[in-house]
Predict the structure.
Amino acid sequence: MRNLTPSVVVASPATLQVQDRGRVLRLVAGGDWIVAEAPRLDQILLGLHFDGARDAEIDGGALEQLDGAGTWLLLRLKRGLEAAGSRVTQFIVPDRYRPLLEAIERGEVAAAIDMHPRRPSIENFLERIGRATYDALRQGYDMLGFLGRVSVETSEAIVAPRRELSFAALIHQIEETGLTALPIVGMLAFLLGVVLAYQGADQLKRFNAQIYTIDFLGVGFMRELGGLVTAIIVAGRSGSAFTAQIGTMRVNEETDAMQTIGLNIAEMLVVPRVLGLMIALPLLTFFADVVGIIGGMVMTYFDLGITIPAFMRELESAITVKTLLVGLVKAPVFAFVIALVGCFEGMRVERNAASVGKLTTRSVVESIFLIIALDAGFSILFSVMGI
Amino acid sequence: MGGNGGEDEVVIRIRGLVNAFGDSVIHDHIDLDVMKGEVLGVVGGSGSGKSVLLRSIIGLNRPVSGSIKVLGQETAEIDNENFRGLQLRWGVLFQEGALFSSQTVAQNIQVPMRRWTRMNQPLMDELTAMKLSLVGLPLDTAWKFPSELSGGMKKRAGLARALALDPELLFLDEPTAGLDPIAGSQFDALLRDLQQGLGLTVFMVTHDLDTLRATADRIAVLVEKKLTVGTLKTLPNDPDPWIHEYFSGVRGRAALNA
């Protein structure tokens, strides 16, 4: 990219002579009027001033070369003269360039049209805010509609599976979103348990209460962290996959084909994903809880020297089945939100490849946002209920 | 538009071109001359290597052996600097237009201008408007994004970008594929007008017999890794069964139209 000057060879530089013969203004063009010379010619031509109301002649008869850009400049010169009140009595180009001149003259071109009408301005800024607000509200409204539809379809599929809910598709979704996520969820939960135990132990040591690291770990993981981390991982892993899968089907017109055959898209594509994830995520969450606590156990053993039986005794006194259930009850809700957002954004994909990527990103961001917001909501709810 | 060179000046000269991917040979010692000011149509079955031939000439595909001379310069031998100089003298229209999707049509057309000339913005805008009217697009297309255009408009906008620097040589890859017959024949007429108006030499890969009839001066057929060159008059009588089959349909239709 270092060579910015064009390598077009200019055999003979373009020239323009202005001959003022009293009543007649004569402009003689010569040399190569080509695109490489256009910037220079443009400056020369813009520097010309016509005081109007007399005859003008444009003589390009001696031009060596002429191309589209050069022709345009000649035409612009002619139109400029005419606009200034001159009468252009002669307009000569070599015969071999006649067709070119005619081709360009044929198009009626406004002298200066605004190619970039979207300049930053205060109105523009306000318009963008308004548009974004409207879009956000509109999307919320659409999503509410989708929520209704999916709720109805899903509950119908559970309560009265009269239509053909594909059992194989459901199992496939559980495998895809649950089973194959075990390694990554387990790994991250274990590491998080290690980190949490280490930090807890460090702080509680100061009060000589390091044994309560286990309470902190058990309650923290089971009530909040296990579910939250699992949901976020699954949102990034499966929520994005839902959007991309359904989006690609939209791009390939597969969803349209399904519709014309008379298949119910929501039932075929959305319900198995929603139900599958609602089954898989609580299981994954439980797995994460267990692995996370094992991670903490390993850490407390090495850091504080707490043996496994001692750990178990303390854990047993710290948590109850209720602690576990409070964490697990959130998982199906998170799962529903992840699947809902993933499928919703997938259905919104337009028929171009760029839109798949854009909406996949948006699906992940939205579902993680909703998960954290919902988790906060649950915390408030539980504290009001005194759980 | 180079001076007063004779009508039979050779713009593209290919000698002994061999292209192969792995073990499968695509082109086996092909020779071809493209003359100044003509429209050459290249046809062939799917997978016969029409696009590979085009890509070899414009330097997107390195041939195994053989010589390709474009505008008198050996493309395989010249250095990058000179190759860029050569690139300025041709424009390429890719199959789907290949417009940059993040930019408006006007910005797309101005990419080559911005890269290779020192024109200021007003002049570039004027030339952009001129190119748009040349390819028959309304001026308000300028600030649309490629995703807002129909297939035919994308091709016209791609053509405007290919013509941005007034090239003397134009490469077209399936210019009418995916267009309806009306849009297709409009594109053919546009192509013919532009070719005559701007004095272009056109190298066109196509499947479209109507386009060939409307625009091509000569036709090169790729069959069995070899090239047969002729016209619409001579090719239907070619002994090769594939070529005969391909063009007998044209003859039938030509008879219908007569």
